[in-house]
């Protein structure tokens, strides 16, 4: 059964304090791994897609990396506006169609 | 530049009532999805439609039905609402292209069943 597990559930950092969020996955083949950002009261917003082990993507203070079993979202020198819930999702090519499965998210809070 | 539009944004139902949540996308995407989001449980897939004319069950389909009316629209129906269906519902769409399959989400429908 395809499964996605994110840790920690919640993370509080001081502004400027770098850290990483983890996404572990179990799928029968990986078509893509996605990171999304979700602000309170809004729908998730796409950040990155990673397709193969060793791949890295960057956007401002965020960097996503991928291994064969997990992905990390590294946050460098975060600012209060980076506070949000970060969701990881995977897509398997062996399901009957384009099905995307999400983890439960990491709630990130950055204190000024 | 609307993207994915959901209606209504908020709804309160009594147990046993029925309702339909509407979703429309203007990006010419093939695939559409309905998710529910509950505290501490992340997004769970209810139903999805890989392309116009097809629908499939996701993780938690019980108590729901869907209709892919055309390429743009994908509706979710609750035939007899139950308190356990109190949740935030998100519709999403994606284009199934090998190197570009991120999903775009609507703003959500906050449903309370009393």
| Percent in strands of chain B | over 45%
The SS-based structural class of chain B is mainly beta
SS element count, helices of chain B = 0
N-to-C series of helices and strands of chain A: EEEEEEEEEEE
Shape designation of chain B? globular
Mean pLDDT score of chain B: 91
- Sketch the topology of chain B as an H/E string, one letter per element: EEEEEEEEEEE
Taking the sheet with the most strands of chain A, its summary is: 6 strands, mixed
Written description of the protein model:
The complex is a heterodimer of chains A (112) and B (114). Chain A has 112 residues and is an all-beta fold. The mean pLDDT of chain A is 91. Chain A is globular. Chain A has strands at residues 3-7, 10-14, 19-26, 32-38, 45-50, 56-59, 62-66, 70-75, 84-91, 100-102, 106-111. Chain A contains no helices and eleven strands. Chain B has strands at residues 4-7, 10-13, 19-25, 31-38, 42-49, 56-57, 64-68, 74-78, 87-94, 104-105, 109-113. In chain B, strands 2, 4, 5, 6, 9, 10 and 11 form a seven-stranded mixed β-sheet that branches. A four-stranded antiparallel β-sheet of chain B has the order 1-3-8-7, with no helix packed on it. In chain B, a hairpin with a 3-residue loop joins strand 4 (31-38) and strand 5 (42-49). In chain B, 0% of the residues lie in helices and 51% in strands. Chain B is mainly beta and 114 residues long. Chain B has no helices and eleven strands. Chain A binds chain B through residues 6, 9, 31-32, 34, 41-46, 49, 51, 87, 89, 91, 96-105, and chain B through 4, 30-31, 33, 35, 40-45, 48, 50-51, 54, 56, 58-59, 90, 92, 94, 96, 99-108.
């Amino acid at each position: 059964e395809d499964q996605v597990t994110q840790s920690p559930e919640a993370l509080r950092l001081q502004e400027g304090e770098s850290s990483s969020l983890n996404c572990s996955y179990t799928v029968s083949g990986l078509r893509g791994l996605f990171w999304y950002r979700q602000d309170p009261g809004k729908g998730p917003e796409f950040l990155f897609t990673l397709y193969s082990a060793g791949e890295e993507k960057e956007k401002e203070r965020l960097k996503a990396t991928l291994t064969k079993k997990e992905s990390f979202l590294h946050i460098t020198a975060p600012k209060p506006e980076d506070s949000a819930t970060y969701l990881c999702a995977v897509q398997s090519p062996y399901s009957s169609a384009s099905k995307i499965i999400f983890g439960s998210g990491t709630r990130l809070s950055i204190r000024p | 530049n609307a993207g994915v539009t959901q209606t209504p944004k908020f709804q309160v139902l009594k147990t046993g009532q029925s309702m339909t949540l509407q979703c429309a996308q203007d990006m010419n995407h093939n695939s559409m999805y309905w998710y529910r989001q509950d505290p501490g449980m992340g997004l769970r897939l209810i139903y999805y439609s890989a392309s116009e004319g097809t629908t499939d069950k996701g993780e938690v389909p019980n108590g729901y039905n869907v209709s892919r009316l055309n390429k743009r629209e994908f509706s979710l129906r609750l035939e007899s609402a139950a308190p356990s269906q109190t949740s935030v519902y998100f519709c999403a769409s994606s284009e199934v292209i090998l190197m570009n399959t991120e999903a775009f989400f609507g703003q959500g429908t906050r449903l309370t069943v009393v």
